[in-house]
Design brief:
The protein contains 2 helices and 9 strands, in the order ααβββββββββ. By secondary structure, the chain is mainly beta.
Length: about 150
């Protein structure tokens, strides 16, 4: 009888709990640096903000412009439309870009102010790249360097 009570207790405990969520997918987004050759070859000119990761060199991981953000994934240039309802950064860049496959968020770090060096404004931000379900696929802290055309 004691064995039956223990089995019933285990069964009732198991029924009252939801199954654990599935593990998050392995990161499938590893943005690559957008170097001068990629900019020249793909004619990626225009005003906006270039995200450079802390400790990541001088090449941008994201070109955030008025109508789109440009990233490089697996050697290919990917254009992600701007969320025109999101907050603006200097030079008409946005804080959020999204399409059916990618969500990019450039969030200014609270308590920091932009600095200016000639026509270039720099602002500390964090970059988050999410999948369509909102799961974080990549994050980095760094600077956006914003300049007119």
């Amino acid at each position: 009888m004691r064995k039956n009570i223990l089995a019933l207790a285990l069964l009732l405990t198991a029924c009252g709990k939801a199954p654990p969520p599935p593990p998050p997918p392995a990161s499938t987004i590893q943005p690559e640096e957008i170097d001068y050759m990629a900019i020249k070859t793909n004619k990626l000119y225009g005003g906006g903000c270039n995200f450079v990761a802390d400790g990541g060199g001088i090449a941008a991981l994201v070109l955030a412009q008025e109508k789109e953000a440009i990233i490089k994934l697996k050697g290919e240039i990917v254009r992600v439309p701007a969320d025109t309802t999101s907050q603006m950064l200097p030079e008409s860049a946005r804080t959020r870009y999204a399409d059916a496959a990618h969500i990019l968020i450039l969030a200014p770090i609270l308590g920091t102010e932009p600095t200016e060096n000639g026509v270039v404004q720099s602002l500390p931000v964090s970059l988050a790249m999410l999948d369509p379900q909102g799961r974080v696929q990549f994050t980095a802290k760094g600077q956006v360097q914003c300049k007119p055309m």
